[in-house]
Amino acid sequence: MKDSNFLKENNARHMWHPMTSPEDSRVNPPKIITGGEGVRIRDIDGHEAIDAVGGLWNVNLGYSCEPVKQAIAAQLDRLPYYSTFRGTSNDAVIELSWELARFFAPDGLSRAFFTSGGSDSVETALRLARQYHKLRGEPGRVKFLSLKKGYHGTHFGGASVNGNANFRTAYEPLLPGCYHIPAPYTYRNPFNESDPERLAQLCAAALEDEIAFQGADTIAAFIMEPILGAGGVIPPHASFMPMVREICDRHGILLISDEVITAYGRTGAWSGARLWGVKPDMMCTAKAITNGFFPFGAVMIGDRMIEAFEGNANASIGHGYTYSGHPVGAAAALACLAETERLNVVENAAARGAQMFEGCKALMEKHEVIGDVRGGYGLMVAIEMVGDRATKAAADKPVPLKVQDVAYQNGVMVRVSGANLIMSPPLVLSASDVDAILAALDAGFSAL
Ligand code: PMP
To answer: Which prosthetic group or cofactor does it need (predicted)?
Structure first.
């Protein structure tokens, strides 16, 4: 490894970071992470911290995870690459699709289309949705509906259904025919509705309105995260996604569940759709499928789609990636699925998530700067900071950064997203790790 000075000097000189301005990388140099073990990371100065970010919502099993590393190494030795385009396949990915069909059977999803990550998974689902309607003789169904504050990656399709201007404006014009409805975000919403169940009804009614306005026969799909992640951990009321499913069914619109964050246990259930008792037509997954150790994703596909595409020689899928079904990613994913099952990770996410949520709510009693605490479903929790609780005016930009900084000095890495602190630690963390995260946050808020 190059020495610390070399790395610090060259970070901003030769690399542009995602979601950051080159100038910001220069003025506020990033922490350079050089090691990871269990739920902890180590930076170039030797400072250790519990990674309450879990990489980027993806390192569910922690950084050690020997079986996954060994599976990757063994696959690299045996067959480091082969494509799954027409005419070839590979054994690792066939075994993975069989395993995924077993795991996702209760969600009604039994086919997989493999990708290289979350944005690719979203792009795949949007394209297959359009093709589905063409195959069924409704070529006019091309539009997409989604939620404001939703995040669906950064390809042009995903950015077009994204509901956050930060990821859109600089890249417009985006895909035509994408429309957004209000998110079931109880703390702030255009209806001024603070009851989650009534808000869910209002948002569902807004979806009905938009469908009527656009014309159902012009709409291909509705895409949503079962719990909005990057938008600031927004769990809808339990009635929301089932209402969406019913509305989509009534209008012949496909429902795409974007579970790039929520699949594989993060919510304390196997998938977000299962948490809400909904069977989507497609589910986008990535991230934790390989514990972040290999760029990989899978779109899981349900019965309606299967019926339209299979047994039809004209249903050629004109879409795919060089790395669709990469055998090393597949081997990593197989090992991750086995570990997730063996370690009862999903149950631990539910228990530790409840502890974290209650702990963050207790911090809210103590610190005025906390306006809202969201979570309650596994290990995705957000603390929204405000300048004034009564007006809900956003906290000044440096405030969350200061809390983050002090928490880091106290041995915990958390993520700042706007006025939110976001916690999405590995799902294998212990009760005492959660206590340590809460103590570091407390120290951060106390330092303001
Ligand atoms: N969809 C959702 C819900 C996500 O959270 C993300 C990434 N955070 C993506 C899509 C895009 O995934 P990727 O960054 O792997 O392309």
So the answer is: pyridoxal 5'-phosphate
